[in-house]
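[09:14] KT: can someone run the structure on this one? pasting the chain below
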Amino acid sequence: MNRLTLSEQFFRDQASANASGDLSTVLNRLSLVARMLANEIMRAGFVGKLGYTGTINVQDENVRALDVISNDTVLQVFENVPMVAAIGSEEMEDLHVLPGGESGKYLLTIDPLDGSGNVDVAGQMGTIFGIYRRRSTTGKPTLADFMQPGRDLVAGGYVLYGPCTMLVYTSGGPVNGFTLDRSIGTFFLTHPDIKIPEGEGSYSINEANETKWDDKTRAMVRAFRTQETQCGKRAARYAGALVGDFHRTLLKGGIYMYPGEVKKPEGKLRLLYENAPLAFVCEKAGGAATNGKQRILDITPTKLHERTPLFLGSRGDVEEAGRRLS
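[09:31] RB: done, structure tokens below
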């Protein structure tokens, strides 16, 4: 087993990029968030943290107790990290400027707990994050600082909470995966230089939404279901958590799809917190990510909670989906 730790990899990344230690500090704080949330999720059923709070978030979704805990954990961990100017979270309507953020050079976008609906059934959940370099250099960070395309990400990744806790990230180089050794609280490199396979794997989509799609989308998904695609035969797999479905796709190949609907062409998933960071990881692993027409990393957001359709995975699969939608 490779005994390289997550912290050691951070330092290797910064050395190869001739970077300061600031990015490593931000990534190390995210690994702390991961360890804390892994513990909260494991204990949730024992301490009464399952179920809903009775409130609705900015996404017009019912808020679970763990959603609140996860978002609060992120804010607490980054409260005294001077190199981070502000945080954009899926759970908050506006950006959160950190104390001393006027001098911070990084911005953090985060979905603190993706797939929280799976907590009641011990299913997979995750955290998705992106790190951008702040464009303005003085004064309080503003919304305009966050309006950057995904190709400008400094680093992006996700944490998967399931039978094990894994942190997968890239800072522009290889995509590396680390598994948490719970006995000592340390992440070790277990999946170095991940490359997404071509010509194999599964397709992941919520087919219960079929009546909401247009004809081209229905025909495209039907081609994957009936194994009539040029990119190869695919089995259906859908975990109901974006991180879980993408992690399987990243390791095994295939495609994850969340298309727009006739009445909601913008889709459900958020560009800054979900689509762009995962697209960044996917492309660095040799895959592709589009909204069906345009590369995800080329889309410049116009608002904090902007949504886009998402087609993410092996390049051949994503290209075929695009051809069938055009």
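[09:33] KT: thanks! The mean pLDDT is 91.
[09:34] RB: yep, looked fine to me
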